[in-house]
Amino acid sequence: MAESYRRGHPGHALFILPYLTAFVVLLAFPLFWSIWLSLHKVDLFGPGRFVGLTNYTRVLADPVFLQAFRNTILFVALSVPTLVALGLFLALALNRTTRTTSFFRGLFFSSSVLSVTIVTLIWRFVFIPRDGLIPVIFEQLGLQPINFLSTSGWSLFAVGVATVWWCLGLPMMLFLAALQQIPADLYEAAALDNASPWRVLRRITLPSIARTIMLVTIIQIVMQFQLFGQAQLMTNGGPNGTSRPLVMYIYETGFIRWDVGKGAAASELLFLIILCAAMVQYIISTRKPEVRE
Amino acid sequence: MSASIEIANVTKRYGTLTVLDDISLSISPSEFVVFLGPSGCGKSTLLRMIAGLEDVTEGMISVGGQRVDTLPPGKRGVAMVFQSYALYPHMTVHENMSFGLENIGVAKKEIEKRIRLAAETLEIAHLLDRKPQKLSGGQRQRAAIGRAIVKEPKAFLFDEPLSNLDAALRGRTRLELAQLHARLGSTMIFVTHDQVEAMTLADRIVVMHNRKIEQIGTPMEIYHHPATRFVAGFVGSPAMNFIPVQRITQNENGTAVDAAGIGNLDTAIRLPTAFSSQSATLGIRAEDISVLSPGQSGVPLIAEVVERLGDRTLIYGRLSDGTKLTVEADGRNEASAGDRLEIALDASAIHLFDADGMAHHPEGE
Amino acid sequence: MSRDQSTYRPETLTASRPLLWIAALLSVVMMAPVAWLVGLSIKNNRELMLGTESVFRLPYTLVNYVNILHSSQAFGWFFNSMIVAIGQTIGVLVLSSLAGYAFARLEFPLRRTIFVIVLFGLAVPEQAVIIARHQMFNWFGLHNSHLGLMLPGMSSAFGVFLMTQFFRAIPKEIDEAALLDNASQWRIFWKIMLPLTLPAQATLGIFTFLHAWNDYWWPLISATKKEMYTLTIGIASSQTNFAQSEGLGFLSAQAVFASLPVLIVYIFFQRHIVTAVSGGAVK
Questions:
Q1: How many whole angstroms separate alpha carbon A257 and alpha carbon A129?
Q2: What is the CATH number of domain B5-227?
Q3: Counting CB atoms within 10 angstroms of each CB, which of A90, A133, B86, C224 has the fewest?
């Protein structure tokens, strides 16, 4: 029997060996090691002691964690719909290739390439009391100044504004890509059927990108669940932890208070949530493309 | 350089799916062989097995007396021209041609000599510094052939190389390929589903169908003495007419056939005694049926569609019992749809097929 | 879609004039904070102390930018960011290309299983491994080093996924032709396949560079010594105790300075970045 030129040459594995090493050492092993840590009582000195699910019950009983969890849910519930709606609107508005629309696309995506540090710096200079852009405008208009960054309620809102500003580019680009997949003859057929522009949008455009809307929503949920830098740098979670997100809780538990086991447990809980969202994303993306109406 | 190719009892399976079943074939040096068949018949797979791009499940392949089916593709000494040409997009035509030679360590001077020679032969010397995107379809084709020629292979393998060209260019390239074969005198295997390419290029045609070889023969043998009903129906345009046989009487001169809607015909076909008229079929090509001039009486036919091709006229009609029949008449025939015509069948051009599709032809000629 | 001017274009809501006007309005809102930052950066700190509404008035000055030149710290951070981002980019390109080619073209034991596991890696957020990773890097003394900063990014499955897609898009006949040309597997990869993925390399490379340059999480945890900060972390650190010490103007100038490399890369390679983000997410 002949050996195929493609089949199972062990030497071929050399091509994936470098990446596989990186994958195992830097991702797979740390993942299991984190789970192991979350089941042990560990401090900086000496080996840990197995404590079962104690770390998890400690996390779940921690009012700070529960507050951070609520904050995160609230943040996701507000920022994701805003991002999806604004992104969809911009994609619809800019869905034509002219010099003007390309310029606007580039502009709306440009904030996405900035680092979180710059984004928060920009928005702090917008929000900070007295010196910020908004207080200056408020003063000119004779309005009562609001301290956005340190008023409970407003602080998470300010973080949300900065986040939407920062992340808007990706949903817009994904929607634009989807809109361009809609065959032009669908629109031509609709025009022959005397459909009004509004009906075309409702009955042709939106149904054609329904799957993308779902996917973008899930991608954004996954991303916004990992909120950290904006909150840490703009409000440091304050006031009274009302803008502290989950990831910041993990960071503070694991790297400020060095409660490694508890931090690991919290991080695995976050992983579980994100994994569920990723599963849904996988199911939607492998399902066959939507049937057109 | 040209070599013989021997394919012995080759079988190809993907899991439980058999794609080629016990294929044997020998090709002599300098022969131009065409694998002809409908898509999915395994002809491309067989070619790719010779090239080494598919492994052989069972059996043996030799090129020039050397067993090759255990060798990697590059060591078999064959060159292949792909349907998509598969030129390396980032290399110039010159680099495309030299790449393979560099791989086997041919001296620089020799490489230049061979490329110059091939470029002259193919008239692409002015294109050597271009990349494939900058070439027309026909030029790409030549570059791909050039890449094969410089390797001075023991055999050339062509995988439907003309199917991406437009009709006019295809005809011209066909001629040039025939000339190229005459000049190089190399063994060539050419895979196609186009019977015109097969008929015009081949020394011998291998007709393949349903995992097996149906017939191997010269174009004329294939056309005039198809071995099976499949070959008879696949080769020739319009396709051969098939008429159910009702009764067969053997006599000393051959066989008298009674076919549906036609009546009795005396043929020179000698059938084996075991031949059964059960499910047997009579086959005759459209050009072997003639339209009788008015007043003469023959087999009646009602014309349903008439296609005027200029040099000839194709009449699609029905016999009295409803059997469909295609008749080729000359270009001036004035029949029109609905006409009732009288036709005659050339008894010397009749083929009989048994229930298994095996063919029997008239003796003589 | 390029169509003739004369082609009939059905009337739709998308890209209609009113929508474009609203988008233009939004873009003004979008750019206002940036303009504010740039405005602050070209004002004298002392003037800003009296009231930031002076941004709307002359005089303007470049003194804050000149001051960056004198601040060795910012340059050190810039240098760290460059080393880490370039190193990580090269690493990701090499690892992803090799692995992507293998997944797309080669047969080896457990290929499918390994690919699925690697894809699963896409779903693992950094937070889920960060604590263990921090410990491991501690064992090997990798914290506060350039290598330590660039290594974690190399495990990203995104690049492998993207390169696998790109390699799969190359027609199989190309490598079959090379096989018949007696090229070794390595030579096929190096001379035929790799050159054909150059556009993909650019896409992945630019994307990785931006990602590494902007990374916040890992450098925050791993680089604890001030001289090992990346620009992102450095700016964050001066941000948390600004106001009194350095002033709004200087900080703003620093932020503009830190964004310049990214914006330049963005302006020149916008197409690649968009391909990377939309190709990676939708497919």
A1: 31
A2: 3.40.50.300
A3: C224
